[in-house]
């Protein structure tokens, strides 16, 4: 696998069949279906933030950008996380902001 999350490389070495299922799921998430790919990335980013998964938030924000999300859409998602998950979620969600 040339692209995808780094955990896939490790998984592929140990269970290539399962890694391919995960890769297929990720590819579907990155395609416009009933939900646009950028919205799916923002939703998953918010879920990661709610669980304190800082690296996932950063990666998913970048994926959302690649799928067409604006900085304002990312910021609004961050605000929604703060509103629903409190300060802990907000702190994690702030990993979505690009470092200058």
How would you characterize this protein structure?
By secondary structure, the protein is mainly alpha-helical. The chain has a domain at 35-96. The protein is built from five helices and no strands. Helix 3 runs antiparallel to helix 4 (54-66) and helix 4 packs antiparallel against helix 5. The longest helix has 23 residues, at 71-93. The termini are far apart.
Report the helical percentage: over 70%
Distance between the termini: 31 Å
Strand-residue proportion: under 5%
Low-confidence stretches: none
Nearest-angstrom radius of gyration? 14 Å
Oligomer: single chain
Mean pLDDT: 94
For the biggest sheet, the summary is: none
Number of strands: 0
- Number of contiguous helices: 5
* H and E string: HHHHH
Indicate the structural class.
Answer: mainly alpha
* Bulk shape: globular
Secondary-structure blueprint:
Blueprint: H1 7-14, H2 16-29, H3 37-50, H4 54-66, H5 71-93
Helix pairs in contact: 1-2, 3-4, 3-5, 4-5
Summarize the structure.
The chain has 100 residues and is mainly α. It is 72% helix and 0% strand. It starts with 6 loop residues before the first helix and ends in a 7-residue tail after the last helix.
Q: Which characteristics define this entry?
A:
100 residues, mainly alpha, globular
């Amino acid at each position: 696998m040339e692209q995808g999350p780094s955990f896939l490389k490790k998984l592929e070495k140990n269970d290539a069949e399962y890694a391919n299922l995960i890769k297929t799921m990720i590819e579907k998430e990155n395609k416009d279906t009933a939900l646009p790919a950028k919205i799916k990335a923002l939703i998953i980013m918010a879920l990661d933030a709610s669980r304190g998964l800082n690296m996932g938030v950063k990666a998913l924000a970048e994926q959302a950008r690649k799928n067409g999300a604006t900085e304002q859409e990312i910021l609004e998602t961050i605000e929604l996380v703060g509103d629903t998950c409190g300060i802990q979620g907000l702190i994690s969600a702030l990993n979505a902001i690009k470092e200058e």
